Every structure is written in structure tokens, then in C-alpha cells.
Amino acid sequence: MARRALVSLRDRYAAAGVTLDIAGVGTTGYGELLFNRALHADYHTVETVAHAHAATRYEPHASFILDIGGQDMKAIWLSDGIIGNIVVNEACSSGCGSFLENFAQTLGVPTPEIADAAFTSEQPAVLGSRCTVFMNSSIVSEQKNGRTPADIMAGLCRSIIANVFTKVVRVPNLDSLGESISWCKAARFATTRYSAPSSSTSAAPSRVRPTPGSWALSASRCSRATT
Question: Model-level pTM?
Fold first, then answer.
């Protein structure tokens, strides 16, 4: 697994015409300790701390970080670069990357094309913020009403934002998120599509890292440098 990860990373940058000069290796996320041992990494840290360091590197005044991951969502409040509070979504898994990817597969939409498909929709399906178990029935109903796969993907992306505010953040006043909101995760297609509807939800500036796919690399470097 570790070898495949390194080869995939090398090939990804090679395809972009970039030659990597690896000065050090850091790991984070759910596989933090596993990959730390497998790669004999120089450093490892929990992902919330990595997100905080990476966010403040690119946005020094970041006050709130929203991490939409493959298996869960995390809301992280910052004050002067220090984590003050963390909230993770509870039992419901809707609103995570795997949730979006699984539905995309059933609709015949390749994962890398989710954002492009969603942005072509002129009438996003209204799916609400229902649990994954019940979302299927909503999608079937929308399909019967003539919604296209693009409409449904756009609706799913919007439902993720609804889940953020109903199942994770749960604040009566969005001003409590502060003046600078940052998005993070490796899935570029996800952060691109998520950020559009969320920007209309909060008046605070909403920023996505210019290259979300390299966020984890930035996070590990920042964490090591500040330890």
C-alpha cells in the first residue's frame, strides 16, 4: 500500500511536469501511524493540528476550517492560529466524500468529473439534508421528475452544505464562524463544488486552498516546522 501511494504521488507530479525532491516525509490522517511506520516518516501529527497549521500558512487570519473528508466532516474553530473547538459529524455519514463518490458511481459519473457535471446543471435537484439511507428515495423521485445526473450531482453537493450546518456546525449565528473561512481536503473536485453554495450561506470570505490536492503535504511541512 505504501509503495503504491508513493508511486501514485510520483506519477501525479510527473504528469504535471514536476520533479519531486523529497527532503522529508510527514504523515497525518486516519492512516497516520500506519504510514509513519511503513514509510519510516520523519514526523506524524493528528489531522486537526495539520489542518490548522496549513490553513494559517495560506490564510494567517483563518478563524474557521471546514474539513469535508472521505468518512467524516470536521468543523474547527481557530483563534490566533490556535484550535479552540472541534466538532465532528455524529452518526450520519451523509455529506462525506464517500457519500458523494458512491452516488456518482450509481449515476455513471466518474469521480474526477463530479464537479464538472454538477456545474453544468441549470436546475439542481432539491434533496435536502437527509441521511444516506433515505437519500436514495429522494434521488429516485427526482429521476422520475426528469432530473439529469448532473442535476442530481449538483443537488448532492448542495445537500452536503446543508448537512454541514444542520449536523456539524449547528450555530444560531454564522458570525460565530469568524471573518475568514477555510476549506480543506485532498479532493479538488469536492472543495471546488462545495465552496460555491457555501459562499452564499455565510457572509464571511470563504477560501479554498489554490491546490487542494497538495494540502496534506503543506500541512505536514507546516507542522514539522512549528514543532
Answer: 0.69
